[in-house]
Amino acid sequence: MSGRYAPSPSGPLHFGNLRTALLAWLQARLTSQPFILRIEDLDLPRTRPGSSRQLIDDLHWLGFDWDEGPDIGGHATPYYQSRRTALYEDAFAQLLDQGLIYPCYCSRKDIQHAASAPHGDEHGLIYPGTCRDIKQRAKMEKRHPEKVAAWRYKVPAGTVEFEDRILGNIAQSLDREVGDFVIKRADGLFAYQLAVVVDDGLMAISDVVRGADLLDSTARQIELFGALGYPAPDFWHVPLMLDDTGTRLSKRDGSDSLEAWQQQNKSAADLIGHLAFSVGLIDEERAITAKELLQSLTVDLLRDRLIASSQ
Ligand code: GLU
Questions:
Q1: Is pLDDT above 80 for 122?
Q2: Residues 195, 40: contact at Cβ < 8 Å?
């Protein structure tokens, strides 16, 4: 039973990331669960040197602490995804043994050509399952002899349903809305969907508090938890922080950065107050430390406020 915060070190954390960290930390501490920090640096080419150190320092500066993490170790070490490849290989072998994955030789063009509906993966495509069929797959392999296969998970028919702690009942049909999704990319990297499930499973995570942008990945992950024999955690999809124009914050933008905040001589308590107020945890914007905020809340109150601010 643990909570976690799992940032990607692709640049400095913006206020939206820090607010999610605050909420994840509060949820774990209010339920007296261990809190784990995991660095999701799987996609090394997108990782910025120094980002991991910086984000650890930033989280400490804000007054958060954790029981396991890259700087202190713990029962599920290592806490950098880039050093956990052997564990993903094991999970991959387990899925292969069960006949749940298959190699796919389709190019993006092939998929665009065959895909039926504009939803699906991060490119908005539902993979039509071409390479599920062994004959079609042989055809594709012949068509692209230079191509290294990606590996896809065979999604079952039917609907995955779960009760999000903030957003309530969520249902997604993996075969109709997502399609067979990639768990190992053609460049050899394991996909986020597989890595996150292996890590949350092995780290015995019971509550995943994360941004609502990941809601769409959750049904896939619940399916993978089942296939790999882990109980699925509870999910708390918290609202994303928007700027004054109603646009989602992005790491590239940099305006809502800790560095800029510190340069204005504002304190950690000022920022905790700003973040807490923005999501309705306090009634007016004022300086408050992370510890004081924790003492002013219960887990039910935290949940009620998050539900209210998600509406
Ligand atoms: N690493 C992901 C991110 O920074 C979060 C993954 C998760 O919480 O499941 O957006």
A1: no
A2: yes
CA of 130 to the centre of ligand 1 (A): 30
How far does the centroid of ligand 1 lie from the alpha carbon of residue 135, in Å? 37
Contacts of 22 (CB under 8 A, 6+ apart): 62, 64, 272, 275, 276, 290, 293
- Contact residues of ligand 1, CB 6 A cut-off: 6-8, 40, 196, 210, 214
Query: Strand 205-211 relative to strand 168-173: parallel, antiparallel, unpaired?
Result: unpaired
**CATH tag, 2-82+197-310:** 3.40.50.620
Average pLDDT over residues 252-274: 89
Pocket test for ligand 1, best of 41, 42, 210, 222 (most atoms within 8 A of CB): 210
More confident residue, 305 or 12: 305
* Ranges in the chain annotated CATH 3.40.50.620: 2-82+197-310
At residue 255, the pLDDT reads 67
The b-or-e profile of 248-284 (16+ CB within 10 A means b, else e) is ebebeeeebbbeebeeeeeebbbbbbbbbebbebbee
Please, what is the angle between helix 51-61 and helix 15-30, to 10°?
60
pLDDT at 97: 98
Pocket test for ligand 1, best of 196, 198, 209 (most atoms within 8 A of CB): 196
**CB 164, CB 219: distance < 8 Å:** no
The pLDDT of residue 278 is above 80 = yes
Tokens of 285: 């914007």
User: Which of 3.30.70.100, 1.10.1530.10, 3.90.800.10, 3.40.190.10 would CATH assign to domain 87-192?
Assistant: 3.90.800.10
Tell how far the Cα of 39 is from the centroid of ligand 1, in angstroms: 9
Q: What is the pTM of this model?
A: 0.94
pLDDT attached to residue 115 = 63
Q: Hey, what amino acid is at 80?
A: Y
